[in-house]
Amino acid sequence: MTGRRYALFLGCNVPVRNLGYELAARRVAAALEIELVDLPGFRCCGYPLKALDSYAALLVAAHNLCQAEAAGLPIVTLCNACSGTLTEADLELKEDADLRKRVNGDLARVGLRYQGTTRVQHFLRVLDSSPGRQEIRRRVSRPLDSLQIAVHYGCHYFRPTRVYHRYGVDPREDAEAPEALDRLVTATGAASISYEGKNDCCGGGLMGLRPDLAREQAGRKVREAQGAGADALLVACPTCGLNFSNSQPDDQELTILYFPQLLGLALGLDPDELGLELNQISADGVREKLGV
After folding, report:
1. What structural domains does the chain harbor?
2. What is residue 3's predicted lDDT score, i.e. its pLDDT?
């Protein structure tokens, strides 16, 4: 994976509420010789606007795509919603000449022009590529074979499916039975366990309307993972991670890990480098099992 360079799109949640996720992603990328470049022109992906004004959301997303194009870099994201929003915007603009002309007319006011020369990928997909998995297996120095991990993908990781398929993401990838996180867990030596409701939503979409139901849904998934014997629940989305962390059972908490944190442990990195102490739920149980 030597020589891979990406514009790192952090989005809104990660740098404010998921610092451990960001730290781990940066440290793991460096360990795998992936260069993450910070672009000062990046803004919100546009997702919060979609329900109110889809064109405004598209314009915001296009602004970000232009920043990456100017730098000559593909975009890598840490957030499922950011990944989906930017991917969908890039696809729409590439496929619809009239829409592209309208957007470029508005972007011209700030000196920008969308050309369709960049590409968007979630960091998980970068690591789950064939070269990525091979490199990870080669570099694992602390096998995590004592851990049982329950994975959670999040709704936006592969939805809308038609968008991702048209965008060229592996058509064998199934939104109803994704496997990327499971493969990553296996590459670290840990066991990816099955549990009831594995592909259910975390409930985050309800937070603005019914936070009680959102917490109930997230809490149910945490208990299901605990019941299956999980040492931790592994997530690829900052909103999912926050919702699970804020919806823990009263009697016994379950560690919530972001996937670069688990991978970093397997690569032999110090837990303090991976931001584990910044997670809302203690990872001491995981550290004790690993002796780190």
Report:
1. 4-122 (1.20.1050.140), 143-290 (3.40.50.11810)
2. 58
